[in-house]
Amino acid sequence: MRDMKYFYGVLTLLGIILPYMEFIPWISEHGFNMTLLLNEATQNRISAFAWLDVIIAVIVLIGFILYEGKRIDIKQKWIPITGTLTVGVSFGLPLFLLLREIRMDKLKEK
């Protein structure tokens, strides 16, 4: 299953690089203006639709990380949870799946 670890690793990197390629220039231009950020993020119904979808995905992912992480005893659950809350599902999900693959391999060795 080495291929899946590589796959999740690449997606983890893309999941942090691609969103921040857009976010960092915005922060450089506007600073940490949360009011402007929320206004721009919810300017129309399609933006609100996308954000509501993301919020639900974040809730589901954190629940999955907590449940599955406890079930197979992943010690670093806080890392993908933090990554999800600071970057997004695009980073937190592949990172957790990578940690899960690593843990599953260790369980198979026992």
| Biggest sheet record | none
Helix-and-strand structural type: mainly alpha
User: What portion of the residues fall into strands of 2 or more residues?
Assistant: under 5%
Radius of gyration: 16 Å
**Termini distance?**
17 Å
Q: How would you name the oligomeric state of the polypeptide chains in this document?
A: single chain
The count of DSSP E runs of length 2 or more, i.e. the number of strands, is 0
- The count of helical stretches stands at 5
Helix content: over 70%
Principal-axes geometry comes out as elongated
**Contiguous uncertain segments of 5+ residues:** none
- One letter per element, helices H and strands E, the order comes to HHHHH
| Mean of all residue-level pLDDT scores | 94
Summarize the structure in words.
The longest helix has 29 residues. The protein is elongated. By secondary structure, it is mainly alpha-helical. The mean pLDDT is 94.
